[in-house]
Design goal:
By secondary structure, this protein is mainly beta. The protein has one domain (3-273): monomeric porin ompg (Porin). Helix content is 8%, strand content 62%. The chain has helices spanning 3-6, 8-17, 20-27; strands at 32-43, 50-60, 66-76, 79-92, 96-104, 114-124, 129-139, 144-156, 159-170, 174-187, 191-203, 212-225, 230-243, 262-273. A 14-stranded antiparallel barrel has the order 1-2-3-4-5-6-7-8-9-10-11-12-13-14. α2 packs antiparallel against α3. The longest helix is centred in the first third of the chain and has 10 residues, at 8-17.
C-alpha cells in the first residue's frame, strides 16, 4: 500500500501539523471528527504530577478549507490553566497547502498568553517528499519567542519519516534550537505506530520566569482504528531537561539554582468520525 497516494492532501496535512484530527478527516473523506483525550505525567525531584484534559474537533468544507480547534484544561505546579487553539488548512493547486493557527490562554498562569503560527507546505507527490516552512510567534507574560520551522518528510511503502528543525530567538534570552525526528509505520489502512526523538534547547515558562534547558525526549505514539468510525490514540513519552551550566541564563533571570527534571507520561484518546 502506498500511503502517499492514498490521499496526497490528507497525508500532507498529517505531516504539516502533527494534528491528526484534521489529517484523518481528509483521508477518510469525513467532514467532522472529534477526539477526547486524557494525559497524565509524573515528575521527579518531588514535583507534583501534571495532567491534561483535551477536546479536539475538525470540520471540512468539501473541496475547500478545513477548520479545527482544541480546548485544554491543564494542571501543573499545583495550579490549573486553560488553552484554546483554532486554525485552518487551505489547499491551493495540487501541490501546495497553507496552515494558519492561533492559540490563547485567558489566564496564562503558566501557559503562553498567545501564539500565532503560519506554515506553507510543498508536496512532491511523484517522489513522496514534502517540505514545510513556517514561523511561530509566542508571547509569555515575562518574555516572547519567535520560532522558525523547517520540516522535511518522506513517504514510502507503509512508512513515513519526518525531520523538523526549530531555531528560535527569545526576547532578552538569546537563541535556542530544537530537532525532532519521527518514524511511523502504517498498517490495516490508516492505523499506525511511530517512534520519535526530540533534542536541543528550549525555554519553559513556570509562572514566574523563563529558564532555558538542554532537553531530550523519546515517545511511542500511535492510533488504532477499531472500525471505520472509532479509533483509540496513545502516546507514551519520556522527557528530560537539564540546566545549560552552573551559570545558566534565562529569558528573565540568571538564577543558577534552577534545576531540571525528568517527566514520564501517557496520553490516551478516543476518536469518533462522523
Amino acid at each position: 500500500m502506498n500511503i502517499l497516494h492514498t490521499s496526497v492532501l490528507g497525508i500532507a496535512l498529517l505531516g504539516l501539523s502533527g494534528n491528526d484530527v484534521l489529517a484523518e478527516g481528509f483521508k477518510f473523506n469525513a467532514p467532522v471528527q472529534l477526539e477526547g483525550s486524557i494525559k497524565q505525567e509524573e515528575l521527579n525531584r518531588g514535583r507534583d504530577p501534571w495532567s491534561e484534559y483535551a477536546l479536539h474537533a475538525s470540520a471540512r468544507i468539501p473541496a475547500g478549507p478545513t477548520f479545527y480547534g482544541t480546548g485544554r484544561k491543564i494542571y501543573r505546579y499545583g495550579q490549573d490553566d486553560d488553552q484554546f487553539e483554532a486554525g485552518l488548512y487551505w489547499p491551493f493547486g495540487t501541490d501546495w497547502l497553507a496552515n494558519v493557527e492561533g492559540s490563547i490562554s485567558p489566564v496564562d498562569i503558566f501557559l503562553p498568553k498567545n501564539s500565532y503560527t503560519v506554515k506553507l507546505q510543498r508536496i512532491f507527490s511523484d517522489t513522496g517528499w514534502l517540505i514545510t516552512g513556517g514561523t511561530r510567534a509566542t508571547k509569555y507574560p515575562t518574555s516572547s519567542m519567535t520560532q522558525s520551522i523547517l520540516a522535511v518528510e518522506r513517504y514510502w511503502s507503509d512508512f513515513r519519516g519526518i525531520y523538523t528543525f526549530m531555531p528560535a530567538t527569545i526576547e532578552h534570552g538569546g537563541t535556542v534550537q530544537g530537532h525532532d525526528m519521527l518514524l511511523s509505520y502504517y498498517y490495516k489502512g490508516l492505523s499506525f505506530v511511530g517512534f520519535g526523538i526530540t533534542f536541543g534547547r528550549e525555554m519553559e515558562y513556570d509562572g514566574a520566569s523563563n529558564p532555558i534547558f538542554n532537553t531530550r525526549a523519546f515517545r511511542l505514539t500511535g492510533r488504532h482504528w477499531i472500525d471505520p468510525n472509532w479509533a483509540v490514540s496513545f502516546d507514551v513519552s519520556y522527557y528530560e531537561q537539564s540546566p545549560l551550566s552552573s551559570t545558566q541564563t534565562t529569558a528573565t533571570t540568571s538564577n543558577a539554582l534552577i534545576t531540571g527534571y525528568v517527566r514520564q507520561g501517557i496520553n490516551i484518546g478516543i476518536r469518533r468520525k462522523f
